[in-house]
Specification:
Strand order of the largest sheet: 11-10-9-5-4-3-13-12
CATH architecture of the largest domain: Alpha-Beta Barrel
Structural class: alpha/beta
Shape: globular
Helix content: 25-40%
Number of domains: 2
Number of helices: 17
Distance between the termini: 35 Å
Largest sheet: 8 strands, parallel
Strand content: 5-15%
CATH superfamily of the largest domain: Glycosidases
């Protein structure tokens, strides 16, 4: 399934400064600034006991594979006890492991195994909301209005003669209203509670000191176990304008409605940074300090506030997830991100895919004019998908961002060139984004289908008992087993590029070089490491220099469209 018959690369002698290691981990406190982090969706990575659900022991069993990728860290999506109303982002207990996925002892064993191989671990923290099964929410439902138990969440009386209407016109991501009557879950006091996502995900009241203290306890719990960093879910959403009368918000609050002044209703309010400054004090108690990265959908100029050394330290920059695969767009996005990072001396964060997005190989194999939501609802049949071209462009984009200064976050399966699974039968869909939103959006299950490890078997090597989401037949061609035998496969290219990246890493700056084609970008790093990408142009002459790796083969010494080349030039 390789994208070409040959691939050019050459390993360089190690050039980066020697870093002392203890138990496999470097002692460099700035290890995170230019790290390669691999996101694992635990339920879909590897199943050790044959129940169809990925688990902690499954991750441990695949540590040799993770080591082969030459990554610096893994990020685990939630593995906490959960009823899975939202794929584990509805948390019942923040300081335990879901029994379906293992135990704390299993977690400790996995952590130790990864650390021995020099791989650090991020865990997902979900502070905006809990599950409706969390002990606090159960206490709140049983308590009277105005009680301390209810104040941990956001309960309000309804409007109308008998309180039969929601307190405001606010909308949720997963339901028509962001308010649900407590009677839905057995409450008997006639109030409504707030939820930004599914009703099973009631929002915390972050003005409550008890809530603030409990999350400090959670951060210390995992840090004391040896966890190296945290990914903060919906980091911009904790502080809300709950002053009454409530402001109107009949549609989702987008960046345009929120503005960039930190005074929106739902998100990116200035009050949130007081929370993260307190978290920073906890992080800095450890050696090396714990790392955090914010998931914050905010105006670009607000990103440095989350990435400040006084708050979380890093913030995802999602611009490349939606940036069209075009030279001009990529250059503008790159330079803006670098300029913003330099404002507060943070590092850039690059990503092309994650557990919430259509896989980028699929995006890049579709005509850009196609409305992707409608295409997904058609099970991928309304317009053709060029899988080969999509994989090729995805690899070119990956090499482009891997060459940039800063850290890169990758999503499991992208190293195999996996495409989105578009034809999951309705009866098998798990995502509330589809089930709760009047079925106008297919949801995110398509990127969460369990990984193919082998080319055969009931679940392509994922486990012995099938998979919790159906895997398509074409997964066989994208399995680890198949790609490990192909020197031009996406997996081979990822492994080589990530290993080279470690050797080539240098100062966090780039220099742009002029090209003779507007579809070609060329930048270099201070040590002679060059990266050139032909996005959609005619075959472009390869510059002078020693080729290190190419995402697809050169033809007659020229870089074809959808190709990135790293080369060395002193």
């Amino acid at each position: 399934m390789g994208i070409g018959s040959t691939r050019l690369f050459r390993r360089l002698p190690r050039m980066s400064k020697t870093i002392k290691k203890t138990s496999g981990l470097s002692t460099d406190k700035n290890w995170w600034r230019q790290a390669a982090i691999y996101q694992i969706y635990p339920r879909s990575f590897a199943d050790s006991n044959g129940d169809g659900i990925g688990d902690i022991k499954g991750i441990t069993s695949r540590i040799p594979y993770l080591k082969s990728l030459a990554i610096d860290a893994v990020w685990l999506s939630p593995f906490y006890p959960s009823a899975l109303a939202d794929g584990g982002y509805d948390v019942d207990d923040y300081r335990d492991v879901d029994p379906k996925l293992g135990t704390l002892a299993d977690f400790d064993q996995m952590l130790s195994g990864l650390h021995k191989e020099g791989i650090r671990v991020f865990v997902d923290i979900v502070p905006n909301h809990s599950s409706n099964l969390h002990v606090w929410f159960k206490e709140a439902l049983a308590a009277a209005p105005g009680s301390k138990a209810r104040d941990r969440y956001v309960f309000r009386d309804g409007k109308g003669v008998n309180g039969e209407l929601p307190p405001s016109d606010w909308v949720s991501h997963f339901a028509p209203s962001s308010w649900t009557h407590e009677s839905t879950f057995g409450g008997k006091n006639g109030q409504w509670f707030l939820h930004w996502f599914a009703p099973e995900q009631p929002d915390f009241n972050w003005e409550n000191r008890e809530v603030q203290k409990d999350f400090l306890k959670t951060l210390k719990f995992w840090s004391d176990r040896g966890v190296d960093g945290f990914r903060i879910d919906v980091a911009h959403g904790l502080a809300k304008d709950l002053s009454e009368p409530f402001r109107s918000m009949p549609v989702h609050e987008g960046l345009e409605q929120r503005g960039n002044k930190g005074k929106g209703i739902w998100g990116d309010r200035n009050e949130v940074f007081a929370i993260y400054k307190e978290w920073r004090k906890v992080f800095n108690q450890y050696d090396p300090p714990r790392v955090a990265v914010a998931e914050a959908y905010v105006h670009p100029e607000r990103l440095p506030l989350y990435a400040s050394t006084k708050t979380l330290g890093q913030c995802f920059d999602f611009r490349f997830i939606e940036t069209p695969f075009e030279a001009g767009a990529y250059k503008a996005a790159t330079q803006e991100a670098i300029d913003l990072a330099q404002k507060n001396k943070s590092s850039c964060t690059w990503t092309l895919s994650n557990h919430d997005q259509i896989r980028h190989a699929t995006k890049m194999g579709l005509n850009p004019a196609v409305e992707r939501r409608d295409w997904m609802l058609s099970n991928g049949t309304s317009h053709p998908l060029d899988m080969k071209s999509g994989t090729q462009n995805a690899l070119a984009a990956t090499l482009y961002i891997l060459g940039l200064p800063g850290s890169t976050y990758m999503y499991q399966g992208e190293e195999l060139g996996l495409h989105e699974v578009t034809d999951i039968p309705e009866k098998d869909i798990q995502d509330p984004q589809y089930l709760r939103n009047l079925k106008v959006d297919k949801g995110r299950d398509g990127c969460r289908v369990p990984l193919p490890w082998t080319s055969s078997g009931s679940s392509f090597g994922f486990g012995t008992g099938g998979a919790h989401l159906p895997q398509p037949k074409w997964f066989a061609d994208y399995s680890v087993e198949v790609e490990e035998k192909d020197s031009s496969s996406p997996l081979s290219i990822y492994r080589t590029a990530l290993a080279l990246r470690k050797e080539l890493q240098t100062k966090e700056v780039i220099k742009w070089h002029k090209t003779k084609d507007i579809s070609v970008l060329h930048y270099s790093r201070p040590n002679g490491w060059h990266c050139i990408t032909n996005f959609r142009g005619h075959p472009y002459p390869m510059p002078k220099g020693e080729i290190l790796i190419a995402s697809s083969p050169l033809v007659n010494g020229r870089i074809t469209a959808g190709t990135t080349v790293w080369f060395w030039k002193k």
